[in-house]
Each structure stands twice: as C-alpha cells, then as structure tokens.
User: Fold these one by one.
Assistant:
Number 1:
Amino acid sequence: MARPSQDQDSALLQAGLALYPQLGCAGLSVRRVAEHAGVRPAMLHYHFGGKPEFLRALLQQLYEVMFSRLSASGAGDGPALVRLRAALFSLAGFLREHRAAVARLLLDAGQGEVVVQDFLRANAPRHLALLMQLLSEAAAEGDLNEAPPLQRFVFVMSSVAAPLLIAQGVARLNVAPELVTAHLDEQVLSDAAIRQRIDWALAALGARGAGPGTPIGPRPAAPAELPAAAPSVPTPSSPSVTLAPSSRRSR
C-alpha cells in the first residue's frame, strides 16, 4: 500500500508545475508551493531537501516526460524519415502542451538562474543528439540532402518548435493585432498546422513527398480587383501537465 507521503510528493510537484510558468524560479517560494499543494512547508524540505532540489526534481520530471515520448516516437526499424516525422510531431505536441513552462524556463536561463542553466546543460544534449541522429540517418538513406548537421537541426527547430514559443509570447503579452491572435489556434497550434510546418521543413531539406501539405483552414476568397488609382488598403489596428512523484528522501 502506498504511503501517504507519496501523495505529498506528487501534490508538491503538481503545484510547482502549475505555479512555475507564472512565477519562475525567483517567485516560486517554498511557502507558495506548499500552500497550493495543501501541505505544510516543512514537507517540501522533507521530500526534496529545499527549494533548489525541488526545482531540479520538477524540471527533471517534466523533461523525462518529453524525452520518453520523443524516444518512443523515434524508435523502431522503419525508415528514418518516418521516425523523424513522428519524433518532431511528438516534440511539438509536448511544447504546445507545456509552452508556458518552456517559455519561462528559457527566460530563467537567460536571467542567470543557476538551477535552470545546470539543468539545460545536463539534459539538452540528450534530445539534440536523438534528433540530429535521425536527421543524419534520413540523409544517409537518401531521403534528405546532405547538409551541415547543426545547421540542419537549427533550421528544423526554427520551423517546428519556435512558432509554438512565439505564440505563447504573443498570447501572454497581448501585443499582436487581432488579425494574428484570431488565427493562432488554427494556423499555429493545431495538429494540422504543426504537421504542415514539419512537411515544409523537411521538403526544404530535400524530403521526397514532403510538399506543402493540406492547407490549414478554408481557402480565402480572392480579393476584388481594384481600380488602378485605388488607395492602398490600411493595415488592421491593434486590439485593445500528471507527473509521477519523484523519489522520496529517507528520514
């Protein structure tokens, strides 16, 4: 029978995941996490040792969810290009689901949070190596053009992953015109939009059969023909994750 302390572990991690995107490392205090989890602050120290250790456990748990999905999608004996597509879609799905936490992670890293920087140094090489290996295998099988490995990886990530993080920033800051925000879900965040960007990125690298893909959303009506002296059209104005509990500390 599971001990009650395991439920406290899970509750603390879930509370941390809920609060981290808004508060970041600096604002994620032991007291706030404990209050959100409905436990005493001492329980965080008991299970994790302190705030830095809790942050490491939280980030590692989240990363392992992503990496396990990525690894499963890229595994198998089929063509590397097929496995690469599946892995990219898996990664994009995770980023869409946890884009607020990932955006905060990158912000914290840029602001010099040591725990986050150490976490990225330890873990980023894992998924980078997996994806670069799939890209290299696809090229070796003749399904992609030869290219510098890192350049190829950066190009694919800028096409597949970056739009999801940009969408998060646009939504949070509320600075984009309605013309953009009205279509974020359909044309940036949807499964169809993600698959289309993967198709485009791989087509640019020479993948056979990776054309433009199915158009996202209805095809817009053709604009009416304007007379030669018609004024220019004005631009629109701007508008007003269940984690498994980590290992418990022994008394």
Number 2:
Amino acid sequence: MTRRTRVWAYTFYPIYAVHGDVDARRDSDVFYLASESLFFCYDRFCMKEIVAVLPNIRSLHNVGSAFRTADAAGVSKLYLSGITPKPVDPLGNYRREIVKVALGAERTVPWECARSTVALLKKLKKTGYQIFAVEQSKRSIPYYRVKPAKNARVALVVGNEVEGLPADVLRLADKILEIPMRGKKESLNVSVAFGIVLFGLVYNK
C-alpha cells in the first residue's frame, strides 16, 4: 500500500500531487489526493464536523449562495427549516434560481428539511452539537474570538434576511456570534455573513 503523509494546509488553495495521475476522493472529514507514487492525507478542517441551519431564508439566491459556501467549507449537512426553500420544487425539478448561484453545490452538499427550528436544535444538542447562532444581541461576541476544539461538533445557525433569529432560537444557542461593523450599515447580507463566520470557525485555532 502506498505510504500516506499528513499534510497541514494553512491556505484555501488546493493541494496537488506532482507525479502521476491524480485521483481525488472524499472519505468522511478527510480529503485524499492519490498519485502513482505519492498519497497525501489532508485533514480538511480543524473541526470534526460542522452543520448549518438556515431557518426562514426567503431568497432563493441566498439559499443557493449558502449551498456553494457550504460546499467550499466542507459543511457536512445543510438543514433548511421553516419557509427556507428546498433546492427542488414539488415536482422534483431543481430550482433555476438556486442552481444559478450554487453552481452544482445543491447536488454535492447533503440537505434536510425541518419544520421546526427549535425542535431541530434541541435534537442536535442532544447528539452533541454546540449551537452557534449568528445574530446581534446583548450576549453576542465577535465571531473571531471563538475557537472550537478540534473534535468539536458545531451547528451554525443564520436567520431571516430582515428579522434575524427569534428569541426561542437564541435561547438554545451556546454562543451568539456577531460580525463587528465599521461602517454606517448595521448588518450584512445573510449569505455573506454566513460565509464570513463559517470560514472563521473552520480555520480559527
């Protein structure tokens, strides 16, 4: 069997084998790049697992963007709760607006629908997930101050474009994270905020 070498990557750039044909395959939370003479073993993240919960997102484009960002960050699953639209319509056809933004990530990222966000979060907490909510509140702290342990299981929750996350969801959060704003606007587009906080959690050590 070809020898494996652990490679630590500190950038967002992919790792390429330099000899032979490269065969890439995904196995759990480890990404392997194999060649005829070299086999890289690359831990994709500093966390064991991360899932994302998207309650009551109205915009199809924001949902598509979340899928694409989730794929880039290696999110294990997206939970679409409340009125958040599915990637497919009732007839099983992929929604054009989501596909346009997701660029195929709607097919690569596992997703699941949940009617109640509160019930879903309670279930995730029981199975060992820490709940991190993105919202501005008296309890919120800057997202970059949170450094999950390597074996942490995290559920990241981002809410409605206008109303944000309701109080019953925030009460279940282990931490409430915010993005400090330096301009006149008090918030970012939900899909932009999702990407900033998500990659912060993935790469903060």
Number 3:
Amino acid sequence: MDLTVVSERSEVDVERRRAAQEIERAEDQIEGALRELVANILRIMRGAGKGYEVGNHLGRAYEAMLEYERLTGHGMWKASVPHRLSIRQSLDTSAADYFVTHEEEDMISGAMQIVASRLLGQRTQESAGDREMHIASNDRCDALKRFQRRA
C-alpha cells in the first residue's frame, strides 16, 4: 500500500518559506556578529575587551553579510542594520518607570555620541552628545522627583 503525503502548500510556497527562513538566519548572524564586534570594541576602549578577537568578529560579520547577499542578491537595507543594532529597549509606556528608563537610554545615547565624536575629532557633535546626556540626566532626576511625590 502506497502512502501519499498531501499538503495544502505548494512546492513553491514551501521553497519561499525555506528561503525566507535562510534570509532571517543570515540577518540574525549579521546582527550577532556585529553586536559582538561593537561590544568588544567598546570594552577595548574602556581598557578591557579582547583586541585579538576583533579580526575574528570582523571575519564573522563579513561572512554573514556575504551569505545574506548570496541569498538575496543585495546587501542589507540601510534601515535594517540600525534597527538590529539599536540599544533602545522595548519600553512599556504604561509602566511607572517609563520616563526613568527612557531618560536612561537617552543618557547612554548621548554618551555614545560623545565617544564616537571624540574618536573622529568632531567637537561640534561631541558637544551635542554632551548636551543630550546632560538634558537626559536632568530629565531623569525630574522624573524621579515626580514619581516620589506620587508615592
């Protein structure tokens, strides 16, 4: 007796799904490799980190990008990389500590702007990062005071 497998999905649908999964895996590999690279570089700048690993991180990121390009026929979209490397957490706007978390992330963002600007000798951008960090710090203090008054 022969058994026949019946599926509502056509071979084309199955192949599309498989291809989409491969692309998603490639995107995840790029994200992971870039995150490892950036995190290690930041740690190196602080006096820690593993300088000898930078080449390996770069190699993994490059290989993942080549695989993505092989699968899609093009490089990663401009919008995709910043989204995948964002340090912004998903914020629950109904939470009482929303402003604290939001301002904390703005302080980190300002500090990162300072670091990037110092690396490139960009004083104007460094000042903008400094301003962003201090405004966020003041806003955080204000938010904490408001929160304490309500409690």
